[in-house]
Amino acid sequence: MTRLDHPATATGDAERDRRAERILDTASELLVAWGYRRVTIEEVARRSGVGKGTVYLHFHTKEVLFLTAVMRAQSVMTERLLQDMRADPARILPSSIARSIYLRIHEEPIIRAILTGDTDTLGTLSRTAPDHVGDLLEARERTLDTYFEVLREHDLVRTSPPVHLQRHALSAVLTGYLVIGPLTPYSTPDTETAADMLAHTVRSSFETGHHEDRLNEAVPRIIGLFQGLLERMNEEISRQKLT
Amino acid sequence: MTRLDHPATATGDAERDRRAERILDTASELLVAWGYRRVTIEEVARRSGVGKGTVYLHFHTKEVLFLTAVMRAQSVMTERLLQDMRADPARILPSSIARSIYLRIHEEPIIRAILTGDTDTLGTLSRTAPDHVGDLLEARERTLDTYFEVLREHDLVRTSPPVHLQRHALSAVLTGYLVIGPLTPYSTPDTETAADMLAHTVRSSFETGHHEDRLNEAVPRIIGLFQGLLERMNEEISRQKLT
DNA sequence: TCATGACCAAATAGATCATTTGGTCATGAA
DNA sequence: TTCATGACCAAATGATCTATTTGGTCATGA
Description:
The structure is a homodimer. By secondary structure, chain A is mainly α. Chain A is about 75% helix and about 0% strand. Chain A has helices at about 10-35, 40-50, 50-60, 60-85, 95-105, 110-115, 120, 125-155, 165-185, 190-205, 210-240. In chain A, α1 packs across α4 (about 60-85). The structure holds a DNA duplex (30 and 30 nucleotides).
């Protein structure tokens, strides 16, 4: 429970930022464990080793605090996707991305809650999110559209359906695999197997046989695209962290 | 409001059965409009033009009444699928079935509620269903497994993944398309378009290029299969209708 | 300068009471 | 005798009021 002997004034931006991160850590942890409604700011403050008022020096409201926690989780996931892409060009393909997201979600319950619209843990957050970070959500949509356009230009995905339909289809399939588990009372395959099936589904319904060359050509653009989204997210996150 | 001048004792099984159907009609209607929790047996009785006690002459409990209503809706849907299959062999393919189910669900809110696990309209039904009709649910799983096996024997679907994984994948994709609509706050394509995308997804990830002959060979077996399931459902339905 | 916890209004949870509802069964019509 | 019915009951649900908690502020003091 006891933190620093001297909970002294945070000297410098560095210390201050570390404290903000600690608060976000606590918020994330409690969000998953208790659900938005049941977590109090005071508890977050206590577990973060700061006073209650201090939390409000970092985040406008409870809502903003938890939304930021959620955004940070997504930012981290995007960063991982980027790492993967840099290591292996094939990782830019939708099937690989879907697979990674699916697997990651099984160890990051926050993101699962977002994507599946889990109202118990998210509470009213799911309603109010668009009011606070609507721009970001739109940006994500646009990024995905451009993503498919780029893939298309390099003959890596089918060209038959319009781009926005492909995006919709990808969301639908991914969501389906995520939601089906808790929904059906009966036998579900283990995570790894399901992830492979998901990748198979996405691959066969979106992608073409890939040419190694065309793939490599596309990599920088795709990476740039997601890098842009990542920066947009981080920007939004630090915008929420006050002063 | 007024029904027969003579709400007389139901003479013969025919009249009695008509009355049961009327009660099921009312129950279905109110289930969709109000949700399980808010519907009272008395209201169902009033709207069906019978006394409250009479409802209990037909169905053991409130739960059983509404479960039967739900089963009947599924039975009707299965019947339609069978009609389609008889009219056109290609309708036995998973892509076509998925498409039909998806479209039908947009005009049959009951079934949507089931498949998407809509807890607001279904209430506690979703939890308790397996206790009452667990056998039927298992039968449906087995039927789907056999369905894929038959398709496989006629070279109509891929043979790479195990059958039960294919079933799981089909459920996942269909569920995804169903759930994604209410979930995402943003642009969704219109029903018909989404249905086509769904069919495309299912076709490209499960089916092979179909030989007309092989298709026709499979038709009778597939139809028999679903016919069996249909009978199993109707059997369960009439088992619930008392005496 | 800046972290803090007492403080306030508003929301939530608890407790108590009134109403409704699922399910039964004695009654009476046919 | 057969069978539909609505009064009836215990249990669940909802309404209402009170006590507590909680999000958010700000005077205080390190």
